[in-house]
Design brief:
three-stranded antiparallel sheet; 15% helix; mainly beta
Length: 87
């Protein structure tokens, strides 16, 4: 069974990079985000984030759509679909 939701892109000011905001899975007690280099129709790999990074990631402010489009004019998305796989 697969649970899907949106993952918003957030801007990490300290590292000066864009990262996906993770989804917390109570069942797995861990965080997952969709690999950003995957192509839409390809099978997506889920990457586990260590729990100690949770606070740091959630503290990062959300990037506005305007900023995102100005910074990455050749990128078509502001949010990504993410899936949690339930075994």
């Amino acid at each position: 069974m697969k649970y899907c939701d949106k993952v918003y892109i957030v801007y990490d000011q300290i590292k000066n990079t864009l990262v996906p905001l993770p989804i917390y899975s109570k069942q797995h007690q861990s965080l997952y985000f969709q690999h950003t280099h995957d192509i839409e129709n390809d099978e997506h790999l889920l990457t586990q984030i260590p729990r100690e990074n949770m606070v740091e990631l959630f503290a990062i402010k959300k990037t506005s759509e305007k900023y995102f489009k100005e910074t990455f004019p050749n990128t078509h998305f502001l949010s990504l679909s993410a899936c949690l796989l339930n075994s």
